[in-house]
Amino acid sequence: MRILLSRTILSITLLLQACSGRYQTPIVFPGTFNSASPTVQKSPIVTPSQKPIQPTVAISPTPTGERLDACATISQENRRLVAFETASYFVNVCQKGAQGRIFYTGQEKGKPNTNVQVTASLTKRGYRAINGNTTYVINTQSGGRLTVLQNGQSVFQEPAIGTIITANPGVAPRPPKGDSSTDFRLTCAGGINNRNMYFTVIYTQESGFTTFELRQNGTDRLMSKGSVAFSGKNEQGQTIYRGAAKDADVVVVGFAPRYQKPFSEMSFSIDGQWGRGTCRQLG
After folding, report:
1. Which of 17, 73, 164, 278 counts the most CB atoms within 10 A of its CB?
2. Around 247, how many Cα atoms within 13 Å sit in the side-chain half-sphere?
3. pTM value?
4. Is the Cα dihedral 85, 130, 76, 62 positive or negative?
5. How far is 144 from 126, CA to CA, in rounded Å?
6. Dist CA 127 CA 250 (whole Å)
7. Is 77 helix (H, G, I), strand (E, B) or coil?
8. What is the phi-psi region of residue 24: left when phi exceeds 0, alpha when psi lies from -120 to 50, beta otherwise?
9. Tens digit of pLDDT for each residue in 249-260?
10. Cβ-contact 159, 145 below 8 angstroms
11. Is 150 helix (H, G, I), strand (E, B) or coil?
């Protein structure tokens, strides 16, 4: 009886302590199953580390300024006579050295393999270059313009944009104004050494040597024709004119110290083959 009373007092004491919060252990009554809820441990907030930023390599296009200095890019001895760009093309006209060959070089924008380089001649409005059946007309007046002809028909025209860079290739010597004895046109003719052909070149007071024709001896069959433009003087002070006949370079040299006169001599070269001619008055 005493043992039973002691157990009853102990149970009441434990129950009172549990209610007072002295013990945090949950009370388990007989006959019940304590199913403790699993503890879910929250992961700490982790800020994802930033991935390393890959450096951006910007492939810059070739500056326009370099495209407009193609003459010096080809060779440092070249002189830039004309340079401008259109919406689609870079246009350059160069001269080899101070008195050398004049040539056109052009490139379509975004297409580095479309570069064209061909001998050019001076015109009243700019320059003209012929490459087979294609002609490039470079107009440096009225704002500038590039025109492309094929078989004589215009297939492309674009005006210049931005600044047009121009330089004077030189002016052909002219007779003094008012000298009526020099107001004439000359035709200068001669044969080509080691070639079965002869040439005729037209000389005018206004422009000097201008156009030429090459014909076959005996048949007079026209083999080629074209134009030449003044490009300077040589060390002897003789006037030099340059042009092209298809893919061959043409050079005309006037022997007169100032300007050509009737019976003055000159020389003509095509692709390095020279001939000498005499000038006679026309009309």
Report:
1. 164
2. 1
3. 0.47
4. positive
5. 9
6. 16
7. coil
8. alpha
9. 889 999 987 788
10. yes
11. strand
